[in-house]
Design brief:
With 536 residues, this protein is α/β, with parallel strands linked by helices. The chain contains 16 helices and 23 strands. It has two domains: 2-306 and 514-531, Aldehyde Dehydrogenase, Chain A, domain 1; 311-500, Aldehyde Dehydrogenase, Chain A, domain 2, CATH 3.40.309.10. The chain has helices at 26-33, 88-103, 112-128, 130-141, 145-169, 209-222, 237-249, 263-272, 285-296, 320-332, 352-364, 384-399, 435-438, 454-462, 477-486, 519-525, and strands at 2-7, 13-16, 46-51, 54-56, 59-61, 68-72, 79-84, 173-181, 184-196, 199-203, 226-230, 256-258, 278-282, 301-305, 311-314, 344-348, 403-406, 425-428, 445-451, 469-473, 491-494, 513-514, 527-535. The structure holds nicotinamide-adenine-dinucleotide. Nicotinamide-adenine-dinucleotide (NAD) binds at residues 203-207, 230, 232-233, 263-264, 267-268, 271, 282-284, 287, 290-291, 305-308, 339, 440, 442, 468, 513.
Length: 536
Amino acid sequence: MLLAFLIDCDGALVCDARVGRPPPDCETRRMATHPPQQRTPVAPVAGSAIETRLFIDGAFADAASGETFATLDPATGAEIARVAAAGAHDVDRAVASARRAFDDGPWGRTTPAARATVLRKLAGLLRDNAETLAALESRDAGKPFKETSLRDVPRAADNCDFFASAIEQRAGETFSARRPFLGRDRDIQSIVQYEPVGVCALITPWNSPLMQATWKIAPALAAGNTCVLKPSELTPLSTLKLAELCSEAGIPDGVVNVLPGLGVDAGAPLVAHEGVDAVAFTGSEPTGIAINVAAAATLKKVTLELGGKSANIVCADADLDDAVEGSVLAMFRHSGQVCLAGTRLFVHDAVYDAFVDRFTARVRALVVGDPQQLGSDLGPLISPQHRARVESFVASGIAEGADVLLHGVRPPDAALQGGNYLSPTIFAPASDELTIVREEIFGPVLSILRYTSDADVVARANATRFGLAAYVWTRDVSRALEMAGRLQAGMVWVNGYFLRDLRQPFGGVKHSGLGREGGRWSMDFFTQPKLVCIAR
Ligand code: NAD
């Protein structure tokens, strides 16, 4: 089925299953959700058709069962589209297609330069379709359009360009030696060449779907693999658009297959499939553990990018302006639905009162509203179920006795009633043992904790099963290096938040994951070294 996406004259994204026609309630919805004084056009008029079926062997197709599931607009609760629901039979078809394309097709045997050219073409197509993709992503994920347009979609294109260059620059190794063998000395030339792994299962979460999909397919394809990509059932639309752009870029049939569907119906059989050689997963800790167990049965290579409970440390000597702004960003971007969120904010006793006053005032000023509007800082949470889960954490914080500095609520505005909105909560717990301080909430709920010494804060920051990121705000370089060395985290940012360079490793320690993505780490995962040893 083709789903028509248009951006109307006010910049609001509207859609209809009947190509080219806005839904009958379009005007009502627009008027109701955008008070006139807040209206800001998010994009000029544009149009595009989005597929909602599975993408297998270069063609869109219904699920074998004929089943579909609804993808909902988190900002209104309205159904955006019904999407084909892949099951085990479709997994078989997609893996067989990827297997054929890998074993018999041209992709893995093309030169790195040829694959790089195709990836750059894909990057160009992502840029050509940037407005549609950004609006679609904002609509499906409830993510502020200013983020999807300024960050997610440009980054998706950058991912493709980056790994195009990475494969062009990747070199093998040679070794020379002279050894006796069968009665005479031989000259021995050994070559280490990096070959693709095979068929890769790529499984992505809902919070940055297009960015995550390209972050995995770009290195997988650059290295010459074929893949089956399973987006989250909550946000499948931009990945289906990506499938179409892959075809347009000239990626051969079967090299990229896309299977929207539920985790248990599509993801689990994909991970268990004998025809899959490697699994690259980003998502929650429990799913990551289940995938690691399932993949072990067939000895698949696995990389896991999981959740976090990251410490954000504001030292007594911090630049408080930077620390306040950086901490707001680190915690409340995408309503806290970010793996890197700095959800445990440790503030030194000497600056605690000054920092907390300014920080809380700044958070109070954040605008919770329609993600399609440029003035909105926080959009809705992804689903009603997820909002209820986040609210249950807020209730547990109160029940367990944490001081409440800001109590998040469902905003009373009539225009926001259909969506899964929740304003920020700031707790000041007296103990690090509270549930809200230990568990990943994945919503706009922060704990601010007071500390007195570097040794104390490092020990408390490390007292978690997670280890994704940590942040330190200090003017003292020695203190920064000392703390960074002792913090148990895959990534430590000092005086910054997510200052990202695609050449660098991304990932966590402990229960935040296994392996790293980015730069040569992605290329290592999606390749395997082969030794060819020649004696003369
Ligand atoms: P999730 O684990 O519920 O789902 C992730 C993906 O796995 C989805 O596509 C889902 O359908 C699929 N899935 C579910 N069960 C499966 C199974 N048994 N076998 C195979 N696939 C299965 O996670 P989510 O709710 O979509 O995403 C939020 C989580 O992702 C948070 O914990 C967040 O911290 C984490 N995350 C981590 C990173 C990172 O880079 N470390 C980035 C973004 C999100």
